[in-house]
Amino acid sequence: MKNRLKQWLFGLLGKHPEAIVVSFRSGEDALADAMCAEIRRLEPSRRHFEVRLEDVPDIARLFRGYRIGLAPVLFTGDPKYRPLRMAALRLAPRKILAYNARLERHHLRWFQPMASWLFVRGLPLDRIFLRPAWLWPWRKDRTTRPNGHRVIEGRARREGRPVVAVLTPYFPFPLAHGGAVRIFHLLREIAQEFDVILYAFSEGEISEGESKDADLRPVLRFATRVYLVDKPRYREPRWSTLRPPEACEYQSPAMRALWSERQADAAQVEYTHLAPYGGDILVEHDVTFDLYAQVLARMTLARKKTVSAWWDWKRWKRFEDRAIRRFSRVVAMSEKDRELLRIAHARVIENGVDLERFQPGPDGKETPGRRLLFIGSFRHFPNVVAFRFLTEEILPLTPDVELTVVAGPDPWPHWRNITGTLQPPPDRRVRILEFVADVCPLYRETNVVVVPTLESAGTNVKVLEALAMERAVVSTPSGCAGLGLEHGVTAWIADSAEGLAEGIRTLLDNAPENAELRPRIAQAGREHARKHFDWKAIGRRQRALLREMTRVRAGDPLLLRPAGEADLEAILRIQEASPEASQWAPREYLALDCTVAVWRADNAVAGFLASRQTAQGAAQGEREILNLAVDPSARRKGVARRLLEEELRRAEGSWFLEVRESNPVAIALYEGAGFCRVGRRKEYYNDPSESGIVMRFLS
């Protein structure tokens, strides 16, 4: 009876009694296909129709006899599809199910005009109903800040070592992006002289402590303890706070309580948005207000909306200017960044590269081809901008090339949030990979590494990796800023799509006039990275800074000075207690460059190092380390490392030394300082007779 009445009633109106679904394909095909497929799954029992842009003139006639129960419509901001969206609003104004480019859906309702308008404008669904707590204190969807934490014990503490506490916004492993690479390697370098306690936020998966403990082990080799705190779930509109939202989302009572109770001789905070926690050293991985200034300038030039860009820049400038003045020392990534900060207590400790891991193959030869490589995690929005610049403007100017992209873990949610599209348009020349644990094989198979970054702050670790792998780099000025690269010598640098495309074509050209350019630039780049960006050399500067900070609190227990007549008796005693060392007549040391390490507390000599100049050139010299010995009671307290680092600060050049094959502790010390094995001298040592390993350091 009910169905008959329904058929009779809608028959009077000239309509089919069963409501239909009309999907408006008002966006790119990939998004429209995904929307239509989801609607068919949600409404399997209804009849479905799909409408395209060319159907707009006939829409009213096509559906005159139907009752529309649901009208899914894509709102992506593409003006080409505006006529189709307007037709949908005229045809079924109360049945619109709006989809955005993230394939989120929201019913457009007259009683929710603000929410409907914000959704159509492109705001993510989970942020549409956010309201600032200071204006809507009764709202339900509030920020949550977990209270718990997890403690993981690492390597054993060493008596007498200073303790350094390090606070980071994430656990620095795996090495999925440049920030994790820097923190991981410098923690390893710090641990050579200090005990490290790491305080880190986690996304929840590590702090649960089930199957993820394997991800902790590489860091636990050099951290004595790790505190993990779950990152807060921040639920405030981006526009609503005076502080940058990135700083607000890391405010955790649990972390603040742990950090305030730390027992350390120095405290180092990684990233500006953690500056409110306080400490001794703030590491500016980038000057963030400079990044947003670049974004504002680009948007102004493109005549796009700039109010939000201006607000991001303004509050970051205010926040960062105040933050850097709260710390005794601030670390910048380059001289450019240090000058931007305009403070006297800033120090430059550059990003670096692991030269032992990132090195060309045994023969150093490339695989023949025309392969390009771009590495940039999509979680960082400048990398998405760079990818689009590369694929939309540069690749069309460079025929017959293949591009591999490493987009980092879970790239597509970040891509959708930044671009408002589901995925990049398919291109047979482009291969997109997500997280890659070891990128060295990708570097070895490529011919040119491309860094088309339009806006960037700090310095790019991926450029240093490419240089170390002896691959020619084509980069924008911002992509290699602060690295001291020179156009045509250590990289190809250009600021336009045409200039970058010309660089790619020229470096891949095998014509006689260009054939030698790519290997020449690649070799010069490798040498530049070796000379300026070895983590071991950078680690020495990091340890020196921490030594300076701990000396302010507790005083440096060691004094390093030239040896004198009064030290000869102690030198002889130490030498006789070190049978693995060379045995010289003590007075001979006075004719050499001999440095002693003396305990300030009792003026006792703890160790000594003797060296001499063996060759001298126009720019660099050559020196030989003849002996290094430490009193048995002072070993494992960093004395030998301090003596060695003091020696390596003498000048630029090269150092040679010999060490007994049976002395693994000394070999590890020298290798940790950057020495490499270059030879072996058979039966070099007497009493007992033993071969010596020849090692070399090049500054």
Describe this structure in a few short sentences:
The chain has about 700 residues and is an alpha/beta fold. Helix content is about 35%, strand content about 20%.
Fold topology:
Elements: H1 2-12, E1 19-24, H2 29-42, E2 48-51, H3 59-62, E3 67-74, H4 82-91, E4 96-99, E5 105-107, H5 113-120, H6 125-128, E6 150-153, E7 163-168, H7 178-190, E8 195-202, H8 217-220, E9 225-230, H9 245-248, H10 253-260, E10 266-270, E11 281-283, H11 288-301, H12 307-323, E12 329-332, H13 335-341, E13 346-348, E14 371-375, H14 381-394, E15 402-406, H15 411-419, E16 430-433, H16 440-445, E17 448-451, H17 461-468, E18 472-475, E19 492-493, H18 497-508, H19 517-532, H20 535-554, E20 558-562, H21 568-576, E21 593-599, E22 605-616, E23 621-630, H22 639-648, E24 653-660, H23 664-673, E25 676-685, E26 690-698
Parallel strand pairs: 1-2, 1-3, 3-4, 7-8, 7-10, 8-9, 10-11, 11-12, 12-13, 14-15, 14-17, 15-16, 17-18, 18-19, 23-24
Antiparallel strand pairs: 4-5, 6-9, 20-21, 21-22, 22-23, 24-26, 25-26
Helix pairs in contact: 7-20, 11-12, 14-18, 17-19
